[in-house]
Design a protein that fits this description.
Elements lengths: L1 E4 L11 H6 L1 H5 L6 E8 L2 E9 L6 H10 L8 E7 L12 H13 L4 E7 L7 E4 L6 E3 L7 H8 L8 H5 L7 H12 L11 H18 L6 H10 L3 H9 L7 H16 L5 H14 L3 H14 L4 H11 L8 H5 L27 E2 L2 E2 L5
Parallel strand pairs: 4-5
Antiparallel strand pairs: 1-3, 2-3, 2-4, 5-6, 6-7, 8-9
Helix pairs in contact: 3-4, 7-9, 8-9, 11-12, 12-13, 12-14, 13-14
Length: about 375
């Protein structure tokens, strides 16, 4: 299992091995355990961060080459390696030294130098840590919640979960019973619930209403509302407008949209859930959370293995493409001009406001002379 976090991550004190290790939960979104973490370095700080499970002895070379290959598209200037887990024998080297050497060799083949190779028993206050190259380079970790990185994360509302499973639980269905009702209702539908001439406008109104309920804190959608939302997201114009909300990242609009996509992942059944999960994955990736983005895209492909956009996004993430190279997807994703539904100022009026009259259901309408 591997995860990645693209550039645009929290600030980290790169001069201190202990501070860097303590910052790992904020760099990857959760506290790593039995993990190897590769911290890409750029001239201006942290670059692409990768995490993988510590491999079995017979899989070390394969794992090392697979992780190193993730840097091919956007090679960093250097990499710091951190191996988390295991126990150090008194007087002996840190555990997993052979695997650390395999990783360094795989990166060297790509022309990427390793600046530092670190080990920690755990990412927790007082946990022992050390360097592989220098036995005197060692100590105990500070409280991860008291680092510069943690202070930034608190200010930015950037949450680090205690485990990967805890983070993944965010994507779990809220109510399996509700999903069963919605699956049955969607299976009975033979077409979209709106007339073709107005379906894009009415679908946009459904999305807008969902944002308004979210702002009021109204809670989960009803079965009827969930079915309408699932139907709305099947329209290319609506999906594209939703993609465009991810830019610029870290804005109120982008965050509000991401929260709605997360709720819909919890509330919609498969295969319809794939649309919301893909939107969630793209939004998370654009704000720099590659770990959660990867989980969301896996969720989308579990719901619909043939979802083209989810598959493409997962592929480019796995190859180390930085978010800025996918920014154009958001900026050009809304040629019909639907962006902004539901996220206008409070005095926004009119169910069809901002929607071009020339757009019909799923395709531009043909103007008649």
């Amino acid at each position: 299992m591997t995860t990645s976090t693209p550039a645009g991550t929290p600030p980290v004190d790169l001069r201190s091995p202990a501070q860097l290790l303590a910052a790992l939960p904020y760099l990857i979104g959760f506290r790593p355990a039995n993990s190897v973490v590769l911290i890409g370095r750029r001239a201006d700080g942290v670059g692409l961060v990768l995490r993988g499970d510590l491999p079995r002895p017979g899989e070390r070379t394969q794992q090392a080459r697979a992780l190193a290959a993730r840097y091919v598209l956007a090679p960093p200037t250097a990499v710091t390696l951190a191996l988390i887990g295991g126990e150090r024998r008194p007087g002996g080297p840190p555990p997993y030294a052979d695997f650390a050497a395999e990783l360094a060799a795989a990166l060297d083949e790509l022309g990427i130098p390793v600046l530092h190779t670190l080990w920690a028993a755990d990412i927790a206050q007082g946990a022992p840590w050390s360097c592989y190259a220098d036995p005197a380079c060692a100590g105990e970790l500070p409280d991860p919640k008291a680092t510069v990185t943690a202070a930034w994360a608190t200010e930015a509302c950037w949450v680090a979960f205690d485990s990967r499973d805890e983070l993944a639980a965010l994507l779990a269905p809220r109510s399996p019973e509700a999903l069963a009702h919605r699956t049955a209702a969607l299976s009975r539908m033979s077409s979209l619930p709106w007339p073709e001439s107005t379906c894009v406008s009415e679908a946009a109104s459904v999305i807008r209403a969902a944002f308004e309920r979210q702002r009021r804190g109204s809670g989960p959608p009803t079965d009827e509302q969930a079915v309408l939302l699932a139907s709305a997201l099947t329209l290319p114009e609506i999906r594209d407008a939703c993609l465009s909300m991810a830019a610029p990242p870290h804005t109120t609009t982008a965050r509000e949209a991401e929260l709605l996509w997360l709720m819909l992942v919890q509330e919609l059944p498969a295969p319809e859930r794939a649309e919301a999960a893909t939107l969630l994955g793209y939004a998370a990736f654009m704000r720099g959370d590659g770990t959660f983005a990867g989980m969301a895209l896996e969720n989308a492909l579990e719901a619909n293995p043939n979802h083209v956009l989810a598959g493409l996004l997962r592929t480019v993430m796995q190859r180390g493409m930085p978010p800025k190279q996918l920014l154009g997807l958001a900026l050009s994703a809304d040629p019909s001009g639907l962006a902004g539904f539901g996220l206008e100022p409070p005095d926004f009026e009119g169910a069809g406001a901002g929607l071009p009259a020339s757009v019909a259901c799923g395709h531009p309408a043909v103007d008649k002379a």
